[in-house]
Design goal:
Layout lengths: L29 E6 L7 E6 L1 H17 L8 E5 L6 E4 L2 E5 H6 L3 H16 L2 H33 L2 H43 L5 H17 L5 H5 L4 H13 L9 H27 L7 H13 L3 H14 L4 H13 L3 H14 L5 H13 L6 H14 L4 H13 L3 H14 L3 H14 L5 H11 L3
Parallel strand pairs: 3-5
Antiparallel strand pairs: 1-2, 2-3, 4-5
Helix pairs in contact: 1-3, 3-5, 3-6, 4-5, 5-8, 6-8, 9-10, 10-11, 11-12, 12-13, 13-14, 14-15, 14-16, 15-16, 16-17, 17-18, 17-19, 18-19
Bound molecules: zinc ion.
């Protein structure tokens, strides 16, 4: 099981690598790396996908509203990682693809979202960060005290003084850790209680949340050695499970089930993740009980394309579309397959259909429509390509592939000045200041004096000077 199959041929990029105007045929899932502060340990591999992002938004929106959180301010970020994990950082909620595959029904992942919303609403992570900052300071102070005591002890030639110093050094960090852990436990119970409130307010069961957390407490006690990230970030003592169970059974919604349509979308999402992370075999494993289901066939169509057989994949997708003609993501993936088959005109139609059907108005699909228009190489398509890509970039200024494609569209339209200005913008956004300035300098030479483009190029040239 390779975890880097998300974007096999292109679209795979890390923040800060937009340098050259290279041609790419990006996959539906864009892989990017996101720099994270503090506890998330450097970088996490983030994946973008319109279908999954929209579904998670639909899961989260009612819960976030019940939590009194502004839904537009909370960003849900999909992490390309097969292990089960979810965590919050400021206004962002990170969910691993592994957590999505492991959740057999929507309610299980909605429970996780409700718990994380409890952390967000309680401002826990913020306070936790402050606690860690204080803890570090304490540890350093303690360490200095210890060193001072050792020095004092050795100067005095007293062995007792030396021992006291050593004890101080070791005692201080563990004391801090103990305080942090007990603090953590109360935050977890607090988030569980908040989650119970949010789920009740939205008329949803806590059964899924209970299932998820029981699964973890069991795997922890059974394996003994296997330590999962989620268990570290969400300690699960027996008392916590007991509280959850009590809260869950008290709710009048305990036996409420997810709407059928939502469950179907959940299975389509799991099929897609399985296809990207483990190919056809993973899809078969996941749907061994129902290999003819819509989700199983969707996963099979995706896996077929990823294994290199785009023609066969196209036939499978056409069959799915006959069944669900209004599913935007079937059309979106069909567009990707058609691009691989070099049927650009048909790909444009498929993406345009997807854009029209996509009620969430995902900028990702707009960007792919723009790319297909640009890739057609037809002069008559360039204005539309530029427009679509501009809309996509305006919505998501960190879509670096879209800058490259927009630059290519300008290039094909014969507008070299704007092609270079867009590369300057993209590199600037990606943090490649040197490349940004080089492109801006070239663009400036070709732009009419005082034009908006010239002013922007000049801005980029003079920033940080
Ligand atoms: Zn938690």
């Amino acid at each position: 099981m390779a975890k880097d199959i998300w974007a096999p041929d292109a679209g795979t990029r890390e923040t800060g690598t937009l340098r050259h105007a290279a041609t790419t045929a990006a996959a539906a899932l864009l892989s990017v790396a996101l720099a994270l502060p503090a506890h998330a340990q450097g970088k996490v591999a983030v994946v973008r996908d319109a279908e999954i992002e929209t579904l998670l938004k639909d899961y989260a929106t009612p819960v976030l509203k019940a939590a009194g959180l502004k839904t537009s301010r909370v960003q849900i970020v999909l992490v390309n990682n097969p292990s089960f994990n979810a965590f919050v950082d400021g206004q962002r909620m990170f969910i691993n693809t592994g957590a999505l595959s492991a959740s057999t029904v929507p309610n299980e992942i909605i429970g996780v979202i409700a718990h994380e919303a409890g952390h967000l609403a309680g401002g826990h992570q913020q306070r936790l960060r402050e606690q860690i900052a204080t803890a570090r300071t304490l540890a350093i102070v303690g360490g200095l005290l210890g060193v001072g005591a050792i020095a004092a002890g050795s100067i005095a030639g007293s062995s007792g003084g030396t021992q006291a110093g050593a004890a101080l050094i070791t005692a201080t960090p563990s004391l801090v850790q103990r305080n942090l852990l007990s603090y953590r436990r109360s935050e977890e119970m607090n988030a569980d209680q908040a989650a119970a409130r949010f789920l009740n307010a939205t008329g949803q069961s806590m059964q899924g949340m209970l299932t998820t957390f029981e699964r973890f407490s069991q795997s922890l006690s059974l394996s003994g050695v296997q330590v999962d990230q989620y268990q570290i970030s969400h300690p699960l003592p027996r008392e916590r499970i007991a509280l959850l169970e009590e809260l869950a059974r008290k709710s009048k919604y305990f036996n409420s089930k997810d709407p059928q349509r939502l469950n179907e979308r959940h299975q389509l999402m799991r099929a897609k993740i399985a296809a990207y992370s483990g190919g056809a075999a993973a899809v078969v494993r996941l749907f061994s009980k129902d290999r003819s289901s819509l989700a199983a066939r969707y996963g099979d169509a995706i896996a077929t394309d990823l294994s290199g057989n785009s023609a066969a994949s196209l036939q499978k997708l056409d069959a799915l579309i006959r069944e669900q003609p209004n599913n935007p993501y079937f059309h979106e993936f069909r567009g990707e397959v058609l691009l691989k088959l070099r049927k650009t005109d048909e790909a444009i139609k498929a993406f345009a259909r997807a854009v029209k059907l996509d009620r969430s108005k995902s900028a990702l699909i707009r960007a792919r429509l723009g790319f297909a228009l640009m890739a057609s190489g037809k002069p008559g398509n360039m204005n539309r390509a530029i427009e679509e890509l501009r809309v996509a970039i305006q919505a998501e200024p960190d879509n670096f592939t879209a800058y490259r494609n927009l630059s290519q569209a300008y290039g094909q339209a014969g507008d070299i000045a704007n092609a270079e200005l867009v590369m300057a913008e993209g590199n600037f956004q990606a943090g490649n200041t040197r490349d940004a300035k080089a492109f801006a300098a070239r663009a400036l030479q070709k732009m009419p004096k005082g034009s908006p483009g010239a002013i922007r190029a000049n801005d980029i040239l003079t920033i940080g000077n």
